[in-house]
């Protein structure tokens, strides 16, 4: 039996836009660990049906590329509900998805946003060195969140 | 003093776009332009890659309709390898495309557009979104999610992943449907049908109430293009290209994708990165045509499934034969979901669907190939040129959203002309312009999601470039 609660990890981004794919890389690395009770999803965009997966979890962890982050940042999403945010797969963020989860399924898991440094968003699949390092660091930090 | 109204970006469509509305000295709308400011660099990006990678690469262009590129790419590969796909392979590809239509149309209807129907175009834009929809009808919102999940899961059962499944390959598909998958689909079909029935009734009620206003949403004569089967029936994967006009007359039929350059021209405008395809024999811009659900429903003789055909007859009774209002894209989307669910039900009971003889293998036998498939948003062409080793030398993709570019511009212009008669910009007009664009469910994906997010920005610019008024929508 795992010692941790059920966790959903969602890494998102465009893997054809270089560093923008960092979130998906993180999610794939977490899935490869095979941790019990952890569902790790690599997705292109945050779409509404992900709310149904989040509703089954005690913890939700989002991994995303960030042009503003200098190092891997872990932000707790404490106030994760707002009802006046336009929802679009291209403009949604974890708060929007968590709001959907609360409204539709009355579930409010603990949530974090893990931001990976990203520099290059041009067409391609290669990652910047800082993003490669950030992915490794992000997976380690996500492991800490899972077992905490 | 001439003025320009800029709406940037349009919310709840895939990608980013901007709309400029030009006013003349009398404050009347003279023209409108739907700009696409993201550059699609995928064609160049793909050159130099092995042809076999194209299915997987192009499927990653967008997270909403990856299967469309997957199938168009696989069909292009079929041509280059000069193979005949086994019957099981074709049926499995068809099933995945039907599931793709279902999930994509469900997202468009339930989560992007139904707030307009349920909450009204004059409602506060801060709540005229999926959150407002949930507050108004949470059961419908959950059912919409379940319907989209159904389509996504069928794709996953076939391709092992919900999106970006490099499962359809030149020559067929990698694997058949499992018996467990067949059972799951059978069990979930009735619920999906029930959800569709609710949505259909909801939309018809809306149409009864607001149908007259919907006439402003892009009602104009144009050609319609899409695939039809050998008997003129609705088609999404095979068949041939047909053009019809606004009176339902067949303009051209039996066209092959191989010769698309003979009948499709691609114009370029300096204010948009998106090309402007047109029907070549009629020239640009007179050769305007629309693709997607509305076009497919207009050009076909019938669906070939009982319930969808019954609904198609009612649809044609309501619109008077041929639907020329782009607002009817929504209605057509629901008809197509119904047809897809019926056809999935047929296929799931077909013994071929679990056959392991689903792929033909071959090398490079042609140095050029064109593949075509219907994407949820319209007809999608892939055209590759390769060398003897299958390395891509040239790639051309003609996407559905591009083919509706002229139609979207015409729709925006019509809506703006109807609602703007002074320097005042009524909030309801902005809602309607956005809703007009959403009729086409355009996909402008290729943008990064991490950068470039902006609030809605409406700008009034005088002829001399002076900003005389601005409105922001957070």
From TrEMBL, chain A:
Biological processes per GO annotation: protein processing
Superkingdom: Bacteria
Keywords: Hydrolase, Protease
SUPFAM superfamilies on file: HybD-like
InterPro entries (alphabetical): Pept_HybD-like_dom_sf (IPR023430), Peptidase_A31 (IPR000671)
MF annotations from Gene Ontology: endopeptidase activity; enzyme activator activity
Protein name, per record: Hydrogenase maturation protease
From TrEMBL, chain B:
Cofactor: Fe cation; Ni(2+)
Keywords: Iron, Magnesium, Metal-binding, Nickel, Oxidoreductase
Species this chain originates from: Planktothricoides sp. SpSt-374
Family, similarity comment: Belongs to the [NiFe]/[NiFeSe] hydrogenase large subunit family.
GO molecular function: ferredoxin hydrogenase activity; nickel cation binding
Binding annotation for Ni(2+): 65, 443
InterPro entries: Ni-dep_hyd_lsu, Ni-dep_hyd_lsu_Ni_BS, NiFe-Hase_large
Pfam families associated with the record: NiFeSe_Hases
Protein name as it appears in the record: Ni/Fe hydrogenase subunit alpha
Residues that hold Fe cation according to the record: 65, 446
Ligand binding (Mg(2+)): 43, 62, 397, 449
Record flagged with keyword Translocase: no
């Amino acid at each position: 039996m795992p010692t941790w609660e059920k966790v959903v990890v969602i890494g998102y981004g465009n893997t054809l836009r270089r560093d923008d794919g960092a979130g998906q890389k993180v999610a794939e690395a977490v899935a490869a660990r095979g941790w019990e009770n952890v569902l790790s999803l690599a997705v292109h965009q945050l779409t509404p049906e992900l709310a149904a997966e989040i509703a089954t979890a005690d913890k939700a962890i989002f991994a995303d590329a960030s042009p503003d982050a200098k190092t891997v940042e872990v932000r707790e999403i404490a106030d994760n509900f707002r009802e006046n945010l336009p929802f679009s797969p291209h403009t949604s963020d974890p708060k929007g998805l968590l709001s959907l989860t609360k409204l539709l399924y009355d579930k409010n898991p603990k949530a974090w946003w893990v931001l990976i440094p990203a520099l290059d968003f041009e067409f391609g699949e290669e990652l910047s060195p800082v993003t490669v390092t950030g992915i490794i660091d992000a997976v380690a930090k996500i492991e800490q969140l899972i077992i905490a | 003093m001439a003025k320009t109204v800029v709406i940037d970006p349009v919310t709840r469509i895939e990608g980013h776009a901007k709309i400029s509305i030009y006013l003349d000295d009398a404050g009347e709308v003279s023209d409108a332009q739907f700009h696409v400011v993201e550059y699609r660099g995928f064609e160049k990006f793909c050159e130099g890659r092995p042809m076999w990678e194209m299915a997987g690469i192009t499927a990653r262009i967008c997270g909403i309709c990856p299967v469309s590129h997957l199938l168009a790419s696989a069909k292009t590969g079929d041509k280059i390898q000069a193979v005949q796909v086994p019957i099981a392979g074709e049926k499995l590809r068809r099933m995945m495309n039907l599931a793709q239509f279902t999930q994509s149309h469900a997202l468009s209807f339930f989560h992007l557009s139904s707030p307009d129907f349920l909450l009204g175009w004059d409602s506060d834009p801060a709540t005229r979104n999926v959150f407002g929809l949930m507050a108004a009808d949470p059961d419908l919102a959950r059912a919409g999610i379940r319907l989209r999940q159904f389509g996504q899961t069928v794709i996953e059962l076939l391709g092992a992943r919900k999106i970006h499944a490099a499962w359809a390959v030149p020559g067929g598909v990698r694997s058949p449907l499992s018996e467990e998958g067949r059972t799951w689909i059978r069990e979930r079909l009735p619920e999906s049908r029930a959800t569709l029935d609710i949505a259909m009734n909801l939309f018809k009620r809306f149409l009864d109430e607001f149908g007259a206003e919907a006439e402003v949403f892009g009602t104009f004569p144009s050609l319609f293009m899409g695939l039809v089967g050998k008997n003129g029936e609705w088609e999404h994967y095979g068949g041939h290209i047909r053009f019809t006009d606004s009176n339902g007359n067949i303009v051209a039929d039996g066209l092959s994708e191989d010769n698309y350059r003979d009948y499709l021209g691609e114009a370029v405008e300096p204010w948009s990165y998106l090309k402007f395809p047109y029907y070549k024999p009629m020239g640009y811009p007179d050769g305007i045509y629309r693709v997607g659900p509305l076009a497919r429903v207009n050009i076909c003789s019938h669906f070939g499934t009982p319930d969808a055909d019954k609904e198609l007859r009612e649809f044609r009774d309501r619109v008077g034969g041929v639907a020329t209002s782009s607002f009817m894209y929504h209605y057509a989307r629901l008809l197509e979901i119904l047809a897809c669910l019926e056809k999935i039900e047929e296929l799931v009971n077909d013994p071929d669907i679990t056959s392991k003889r689903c792929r033909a293998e071959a090398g490079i036998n042609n140095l050029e190939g064109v593949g075509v498939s219907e994407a949820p948003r319209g007809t999608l062409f892939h055209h590759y040129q390769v060398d003897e080793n299958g390395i891509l030398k040239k790639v051309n993709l003609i996407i559905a959203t591009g083919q509706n570019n002229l139609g979207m511009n015409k729709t925006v212009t019509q809506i703006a002309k109807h609602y703007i008669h002074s320097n005042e910009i009524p909030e309801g007009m902005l809602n309607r312009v956005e809703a007009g664009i959403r009729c086409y469910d355009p996909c402008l994906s290729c943008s990064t999601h991490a950068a470039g997010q902006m609030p809605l920005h409406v700008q009034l610019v005088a002829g001399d470039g002076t900003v005389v008024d601005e409105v922001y929508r957070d």
